[in-house]
Amino acid sequence: MSTAAEKKKIVHIAKVTGIHGMEKHLLALLPRLNSPAHEINFLILTDPRHPVADYRALLAQRGVITHTSTIRHDIDPACFVRLVQYLRDVRPALVHTHLMHGDMYGIPAAKLAGIPCIISSKHNDDAFRQHGFLRLVNYALNRNITRAITISEWIRTFTHTVERVPLDMLQTIYYGIEPPQPATERAIVRTKLGIGRDEIVLGIIARLVAQKGHRYLIEAFTKALQQNQNLRLLIVGSGELENDLKARVQKSGLEKAVLFTGYRSDTADLLNAIDIFIHPSLWEGFGLSVLEAMAMGKPVIATRVSALPELIEDTVSGFLVEPKDPDALAAMITLLAGSLVLQKQIGEQARQRCRKQFSVERMVEATRDLYGDVLASSSGRPS
After folding, report:
1. What is the predicted pLDDT for the residue at 6?
2. Quick one: which H or E segment has residue 61?
3. Nearby residues of 155 by Cβ (< 8 Å), 6 or more positions away
4. How many CB atoms lie within 10 A of CB 376?
């Protein structure tokens, strides 16, 4: 049996500006990776404009050791120097990086610090990764990693095709969803939000950015409302498009039917209040909010892009429509809103699929196994 003295330190590195998909993923994963064999540390790259004290507090409550290093620009040499020194001081057996800034700083810093094992998690298929210069940057970075985790088969194919990582270095480990948290009584939440008992609530929980397709949802909702005046739309989240989206709602005369809540942390309460979850993304590395809705038995309408078809069996555990197609989205909203029986049927199928295919236990076990394989090699990836 491993003793405390034999624990291997593992350092995760990522830039954090809020609590979104990747951050929620690490909240579920990192505490469970702590074990008699592994001590988990999380080095958070922080932007002074986006404090992360609340996130660090959540991690601390779950027993995760965190450290921070300020990153003031995309290219910040001072931050890189601090990161190299931190890794030299801590001397982890393995460094695990996440997202673009985590890779850009963490991978070369780990190499300079002499860390033998480096894993990179690939979380998204961002369009910028396909640009010529960044393709070269990622190709160079990936030549220095031991293995890569992709969070979906779509991302595995993308990483192999675009970033030229060999398939045998890529392992798909799906996000695992924690059991739903106890939620405030549905009627109480709806009353606080000003939603009537008989109104049918569509909900989206996502950053207000172009990727998430809010503009197409607003167009679709305008059309669906003409067929069913009992609909309400709940838009949860904050982001750069907030003013633009509010202007679109006002221009369409939808102020009384659409509610913007801003960023909210009470996800379980909000999901309990809605009837149908909408996720009209233009691309999506995974779609953790979709799984959160499915876990609570909510029927989901999402777009047929990227990894979303891996989460939803179309017409069985949810519905898929083409992206940027408000007419198709409106038609599906109208269909689902018109049948409580269908809502319950699809929602229950979603709940069961989530339990079977996307458990936290599966995610943690697969990650531990990968760490074991990588650490068993004294030199990491053969050169």
Report:
1. 74
2. helix 53-61
3. 122, 123, 124, 125, 172, 285, 286, 306, 307
4. 8
CB 105 within 8 A of CB 75: no
Largest CA distance in the chain: 67
Arithmetic mean of pLDDT over the chain:
94
Q: How far apart are the first and last CA of the chain?
A: 32
Q: Which residues of 123-142 are buried (b: 16+ CB within 10 A; e: fewer)?
A: bbbeeebeeeebeebbeebb
Q: Which pair of structure tokens corresponds to residue 110?
A: 């780990």
Handedness of CA 151, 135, 142, 8 (dihedral sign): negative
**What is 186-357's CATH number?**
3.40.50.2000
State the amino acid at position 338 in one-letter form: G
- Where, residue-wise, is CATH 3.40.50.2000 in the chain? 4-176+359-375, 186-357
* pLDDT number for residue 130: 83
Measured between alpha carbons, how far is 177 from 212 in angstroms, rounded to an integer? Answer: 20
Q: What pLDDT was estimated at residue 258?
A: 98
CB 10 within 8 A of CB 41: yes
Task: State the architecture of 4-176+359-375 in CATH terms.
Answer: 3-Layer(aba) Sandwich (3.40)
Predicted confidence at residue 331, as pLDDT, reads 98
Residues of the chain with pLDDT under 70: 1-5, 378-383
What is residue 179's predicted lDDT score, i.e. its pLDDT? 84
Q: What is the pLDDT of residue 96?
A: 98
Q: What pLDDT does residue 4 have?
A: 45
